[in-house]
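hey can u check if this looks right to u? its 504 residues, i copy pasted from the old doc so theres a chance i mangled smth
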Amino acid sequence: MQLPESQVAVLEAASADEATSVDALAEATALPPETVTGAAFELEAEGLVTVEERVDESIELTEEGQEYAADELPEVRLYEAALEAGADEDSVSMGQVIGRSGLEGNAVDIALSNYARKGYGVIDSGEITADPDAEPAADAEATALEGLAAGDADTDVDENTLESLERRGLVEVVETTAREVTLTDDGVTELMAGVETAETVGQVTPELLTSGEWEEVEFADYNVEADAERVDGGNVHILRQTAERVKDVLVGMGFQEMQGPHVDADFWINDCLFMPQDHPARTHWDRFALEEPTHIDDLPEGLVEDVERAHREGVGEDGEGYHSPWDEDFARALALRGHTTSLSTRYLSGEEIGEIEPPARFFSVEKVYRNDTLDPTHLLEFFQIEGWVMAEDLSVRDLMGTFEEFYAQFGIEDIQFKPHYNPYTEPSFELFGTHPTTGELVEIGNSGIFREEMLEPLGVECDVMAWGLALERLLMLMYGFEDIRDIHGTLCDLELLRNTEVTY
């Protein structure tokens, strides 16, 4: 019997008495493991060997897990510091104990969240106590980390401890497929009869074709069912692909793209929008201010005066303004933009590209940043589709028609509108679309006609209709995503991203 060289080597190295692993066969034959695997499957197809597979699981420490294995868990360090501070006798200031423990940054939050859970003591109203009977040495998580770090094969991690360590990101369970090869009776028979190495050719070359040798050589069989290593190449993120699609649609509708800074003065982000400085959305709870630098130096002097006048006195005969404090130093404060309407104010004022004559249409698809609570529809940063149209005698019907035309390009034709209040638009309304999976109404944007109090200081003398739409919410309506964290952020579903095709 004639077989390719690799198959002969594997056949001779395998045993009929016990299963031999692929790694052991690779070492015995001096062949790569993938070559041994391919040869084993080909021999199995001939009935000469059997290949058994099993999935082995191993527990491996993450980088953070290795750090805690070497330097104790944060909650253990906090407990030891609490004992040193006398918290086993009376409650002690939590700040004092944290300072004594040497914990910093995220480690403090981790320690506090696990301290009471493990029965080390109680934290209440800024005070901490320590249970003198607690036993950090018996901490199952700490013991497991130490054993895994030492490479102790006898380390037994119970299911609850393993789940906790996985949830904390300290270990990960790695699955590997192990294969073992055993000679069959037919394999033994063929070996006893004598197996020869066949001279086979693996691929057609120009030399074989020009010489005519291809007619006489024996080509190796190609097993199309053999396992192959999976290679996941790079790909443009679905969010970026959809953003580019949105840009194409808006350009096709006659819009020009705006660009501008992610960090900007509160003046451009809020003051120019006739947003009062004591508005709750302008507190540190909702905005991300900069520590260095804290303020912008250059603002257009005349425009600052006009905007301040609008805030204090209002615009027109019936305007009253807000009668609330207005501070230029606050207007110069730098922050991450909470909406891309800061770009609109820059362009409408003429500061960005000069005076713009109506009719005009502009848009942007860029990131904004808000200190929101994370949930399936909110993130700390997301993409906003900003847009505005400058023209004479615009109405809400023009605005609604624009939305209907835009969303129809993405197969969404059931847009609903709800009246709303904004400091900078009147009339105003929110947009809603029906989620294709849950059937629920999902808010997808906000819009309206810019108020005179906003436009007059900017030097705009005609109507401007504008909107801010959420790109991630558009994806939810297009593809049925129920949680935007599946496609955006550190917890995104990579398989979902690889397998979802962008609609055009």
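The two ends are 57 Å apart (CA to CA).
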